[in-house]
């Protein structure tokens, strides 16, 4: 490898970060950018969470209590959009930024300037999206899936701003995933083979392919929305020969890979944490990799299971139902692998392990309710009820978000060089675990009894479960104050952490000091080091 | 920490400038569409900021590249980046081609009652499924429509075929330019590049003329699904040709400056591939919009 | 005839993809691969265009006329 670095770049290595605010604006450092991503997504999580509190406050009792129905619809729409595009996705990209270069033995991301841009688009996109609340006619109110014609003919003017916010978020995601692919495949230590890579790296690599395949299609969908709204095209209008159902096809061609985009990195995180606290190598490393790849492939060919009630031909329904069932196979492989990893291990239950364990359990519940929804004849009953809400909150809150929180506790010592308060961590875990189930478990019953989603009012027989669910939601919301305190307390007053704070943790990131140096690996690790830290030995 | 193996660029202002520019562009555009007076100038301002950013950023990278800052690894990172950017472009066009095929093979026949949609003919009495769609369901129905299809078809053997010939020839000329570059024939390279750019510009000129004819003959964005798919596909393609012509011009300028040699010309390869891609998309358009 | 046209388009796309792989590999070897793949794609495209003209001349294929789609 030819070795020419300029003096300017060289200085940077010695001097470390710049001072002040400019550091964060100009930075090309993967750790700085990862930190920015994580704080941004946390801010979005709090905003999206506040909207959710509004939703549950309205639903605490039957009857219209606090909000007009139109504003309630704005709350559900913006809650979904902010959580999906503002909180979960950027949080995973932030984790990727922080961890992937350290895990593959690289100094930084492959395209550091573009890395900066993919973050710095987000605050602008988020600001445009949230500003729609203050526009005439209010924020978008058609649900996060923005089905036409609700989002075209019958939508407020602010929808155009929403469309551009989606374009910007799409640019950001595409650039982020291009960067991750280039980093993993080009920057990994020369001695590291593909099947030596840790699972978080593998899952993110596969997620990046999903993002690059799916996000441009979303961009196409919102562009057609834009022209339908403003330039008189007829893509989603039957009177002009188009079809509103076509919007659903295009949207879900993006939307279904999107749900795996939000869960695959969490699979990777859990595959790091469970072996550490079970003190055993990960069971079935290569089957984990292949299972992830199969899930990703299948995710592209099952989209219409979201549309069983649109009047598709029966052959289509059958195909999409069976293809959907097929996803349970690789997912099952993963769950059984995690369980087998723990089999006969010497388990301890530090905070990250608690989150990872409950992830396995609760995500499986979400997966099973997903299977129920994937059965076409059964879906006729469940479609657009609270059962769906319960299902995707089990996979997104106790799945994706759980994975993120587990990762935060697991790698916080590496990021900050300090330990968090273990007792508070456990208190926070149990508090969250109990309250999240109080929120979402009763929603299964509500849905099976027929309560539709996206309504501000409901029939009296649903009152009790809604009351319980709302109380749980307020408690779950409050738990994030404790989470904030734990993280800030760790950064400010935590006890210094060792380079390898978890006794049996494996991975190249633990060979670096805590906190890790500004540029992770100056010299790529050797084959022996890589093998000693690999997950399957 | 002495680091001889890796290159990490120092801090940069271009991304934040780009974010400000692109947000200004979009906010201006959205306001312009809502008939707000300041929308149009703000949109132009945003566009200028984006253009300034692109030239500044790419200029920085070019300067670093010719001063020998980059090693092979950085070069490979750029190659990975370009390849996957192109893949995202493929998927973007796939969405619009998907819409075209869906409308032709599924939704238009369904509107006339094909498959299990036996009741739709009662909604749109007298509607006949044809492609190109010469009368929209709204026009034959009772409720009136904003979509009017009073248009004459664009003849495939007129400008479209000429344009196909032009763009295909530009594919041939850029292949010759590529060959000249690889075998170190500078003068031939410059000549073939100029030919490619000229063909691209000619294509764009004819495309604008064709839009003029089509619009004059009544084919508009509001002509129902045929007009929608026709204009969005050709429009986004035209936009990509424009970008391609600009990039080719930049490459020509860099060739004049002597930035490339027979073994090291990734920027040329990236742009050449992009041009081939645009060419193939047009071929797909020509066949699926005008023929099959 | 339609199938022939579509098959050729698919082959063209494959050669474009193969050119990307060449570009990705870089170096003289990758450059060779890329150049050859692009040459294939250009020749095929020109051939396809000529084929369309010929087929249309012979009346095997007609441009999109107003025909019922079913």
Describe it:
- Chain A is mainly alpha-helical and 537 residues long.
- Chain A is built from 17 helices and two strands.
- A two-stranded antiparallel sheet of chain A has the order 1-2.
- Residues 1-14 of chain A have low confidence and may be disordered.
- Chain B folds into two domains: 9-69; 72-291, Up-down Bundle (Four Helix Bundle (Hemerythrin (Met), subunit A)), CATH 1.20.120.80.
- Chain B has helices at residues 14-33, 39-66, 72-111, 120-123, 137-140, 159-182, 186-216, 224-256, 266-291, and one strand at residues 130-131.
- Chain C has helices at 2-25, 27-58, and one strand at residues 67-68.
- In chain C, helix 1 runs antiparallel to helix 2 (27-58).
- In chain C, 24% of the residues are buried.
- Classes of the chains: A mainly alpha (537), B mainly alpha (292), C mainly alpha (70).
- Chains A and B meet through helix 1, helix 2, helix 5, helix 6 and helix 7 of A and helix 1, helix 3 and helix 8 of B.
Write out key terms for the chains shown.
B: 292 residues; mainly alpha; Four Helix Bundle (Hemerythrin (Met), subunit A); 2 domains; 9 helices; 72% helix; globular; C: 70 residues; 3% strand
Can you tell me the CATH architecture of chain A? Up-down Bundle
Beta-strand proportion of chain B: under 5%
Global mean pLDDT of chain A: 92
Tell me which oligomeric state these chains represent. Answer: heterotrimer
Using the CA coordinates, give the radius of gyration of chain B: 23 Å
The separation of the N and C termini of chain B measures 63 Å
User: What separation lies between the terminal Cα atoms of chain A?
Assistant: 30 Å
Number of E-type strands of chain A: 2
Q: What portion of residues of chain A belong to β-strands?
A: under 5%
* Molecular shape of chain A: globular
For CATH, the homologous superfamily of the largest domain in chain B is named as Cytochrome c oxidase, subunit III, four-helix bundle
Number of strands of chain B: 1
Q: Main β-sheet of chain A, in a few words?
A: 2 strands, antiparallel
Q: State the name of the first-level CATH class of chain A.
A: Mainly Alpha
Largest interface: A-B, 92 and 84 residues
pLDDT < 50 runs, ≥5 residues of chain A: 1-14
CATH topological fold name of chain A:
Cytochrome C Oxidase, Chain A
Based on CA atoms alone, the radius of gyration of chain A comes out at 23 Å
Count the helices of chain B. How many?
Answer: 9
Q: What sequence of helices (H) and strands (E) makes up the elements of chain B?
A: HHHHEHHHHH
